[in-house]
């Protein structure tokens, strides 16, 4: 895609005749039915054009997606939440519709990109929600800039430390959520589908990602495939930095805003989510059951419940 992107509609990317596979009551069946959704871009201080998805009006709510994810995955979620908020989803560098570059592929730079997005939008304070790697981006943001500009913080199912150190106890591993002893082999399993074992990389994320057990999620994944052309040559570059950071000190000492954590019974790092809720003052923890699609993709598989829970939390934090 040529940069910069002028504001455009999702319909312009897929055409008038693109239909999602499932008709859901109250939800758009085509991108053309969600005219309020637009896509724009801005240029960062290190000269990278980043795209962001936008819908709604009022109080700003900014989503930071996980690794390899993008705004298209948030299609139904944006439709629901845009009735209450001015919703933004940032396509981080090398993902979604944002520019592919060979530099700045560190979580700390991604955090700076979030800060510069808010500055571009002239947003002094917002509710932020980080999912998966997007949660790590928000922890980096807080580590660098504090919680200034963050009204509330929402975290969806991210381990504080992916890499497990050999001298850790099992309890420490569980609290950190660590699930790999070889970052290089974990990255290969993520980017090249190289098979590994549970002692090297113990998670079921790909299994849950392939489970199209929700019509909302199936619709969103279909849209992602139609809109985004991922290139693992670029996407994988942030993974080593992502996997080798340990954010427990930030989580223990630097989060002083209302915080909610979302996880589920399918999560490989549920113990770490419980640990986070115990060390962040007054944190709220939601654990979705398996019947409620309580896996790593809970916000996209069960967007009605997630949106209601998130809205209730934000409203409660403001009262």
TrEMBL record:
AB hydrolase-1 domain residues: 60-158
Gene3D superfamilies, sorted: alpha/beta hydrolase
UniProt KW Transcription regulation keyword: no
Keyword Mitochondrion among UniProt keywords: no
Keywords: Hydrolase
One example GO MF annotation: hydrolase activity
InterPro entries cross-referenced by the UniProt entry: AB_hydrolase_1, AB_hydrolase_fold, AB_hydrolase_sf
PANTHER family: AB HYDROLASE SUPERFAMILY PROTEIN YCLE, MONOACYLGLYCEROL LIPASE
Designated name of the protein: Alpha/beta hydrolase
Organism for this UniProt entry: Pseudomonas kermanshahensis
């Amino acid at each position: 895609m040529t940069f910069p992107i002028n504001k455009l509609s999702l319909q312009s990317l897929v055409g008038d005749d693109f239909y999602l596979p499932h008709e859901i009551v109250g939800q758009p069946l085509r991108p053309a039915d969600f005219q309020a959704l637009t896509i724009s871009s801005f240029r960062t201080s290190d000269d990278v054009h980043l795209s962001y998805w936008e819908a709604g009006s009022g109080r700003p709510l900014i989503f930071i997606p996980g690794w390899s994810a993008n705004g298209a995955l948030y299609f139904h979620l944006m439709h629901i939440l845009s009735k209450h908020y001015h919703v933004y989803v940032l396509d981080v560098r090398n993902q979604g519709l944002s520019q592919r570059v060979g530099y700045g592929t560190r979580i700390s730079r991604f955090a700076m990109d979030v800060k510069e997005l808010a500055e571009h939008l002239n947003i002094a304070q917002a509710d932020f929600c980080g999912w998966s790697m997007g949660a790590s981006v928000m922890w980096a943001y807080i580590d660098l800039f504090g919680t200034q500009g963050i009204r509330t913080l929402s975290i969806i199912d991210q381990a504080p430390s992916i890499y497990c150190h050999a001298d850790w106890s099992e309890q420490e591993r569980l609290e950190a959520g660590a699930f790999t002893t070889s970052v290089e082999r974990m990255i290969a399993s993520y980017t090249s589908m190289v098979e590994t074992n549970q002692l090297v990389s113990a998670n079921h994320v790909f299994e849950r990602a392939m489970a199209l057990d929700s019509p909302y999620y199936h619709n969103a994944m279909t849209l992602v495939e139609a809109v985004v052309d991922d290139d693992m040559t670029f996407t994988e570059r942030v993974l080593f930095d992502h996997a080798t950071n340990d954010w427990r000190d930030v989580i223990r000492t630097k989060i002083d805003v209302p915080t909610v954590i979302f996880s589920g019974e399918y999560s490989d790092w549920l113990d770490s989510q419980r640990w986070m809720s115990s060390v962040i003052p007054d944190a709220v923890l939601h654990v979705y059951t398996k019947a409620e699609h309580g896996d790593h993709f809970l916000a996209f598989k069960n967007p009605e419940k997630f949106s209601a829970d998130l809205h209730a939390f934000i409203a409660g934090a403001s009262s």
